[in-house]
Specification:
108 residues, alpha/beta, Signal recognition particle alu RNA binding heterodimer, srp9/1, five-stranded mixed β-sheet, 3 helices
Length: 108
């Protein structure tokens, strides 16, 4: 009986160690895949945001009902701002790119 308990416990411990090692390996592998955490958008003034959009460096814009605007540039830099009134960014983008071919736009 002692031998059976000892070998059973050894097997359980070995399975546990293998599982722990596998989980650790998967964790290290997922960290090494190059997936960096999402960057925090830099806050800019509304005037600076307008300059970026008019300058053609912005590839996508999202707006919320709370007047927050998020922008992503061609070089993947991200910015956030507050528009002075609802849909101000929408009107600006429609003025510059009415077909939305150059600037992707989303709203909530």
């Amino acid at each position: 009986m002692y031998y059976w308990m000892n070998t059973t416990l050894t097997r359980i411990m070995m399975i546990g160690l293998r599982t722990f090692a596998l989980v650790g390996l998967l964790s290290i592998t997922s960290c090494a895949t190059g997936h960096a955490p999402m960057p925090t958008p830099q806050t800019v003034s509304w005037d600076h945001a307008v300059t970026l959009i008019r300058g053609g460096s912005v590839k996508s814009v999202s707006q919320s009902h709370s007047l927050f605007v998020w922008m992503k540039c061609q070089d993947d830099r991200q910015y956030q701002t507050r528009e002075p009134k609802i849909d101000a960014v929408w009107h600006l983008i429609n003025e510059l790119d009415p077909d939305h071919k150059k600037i992707r736009f989303s709203t909530e």
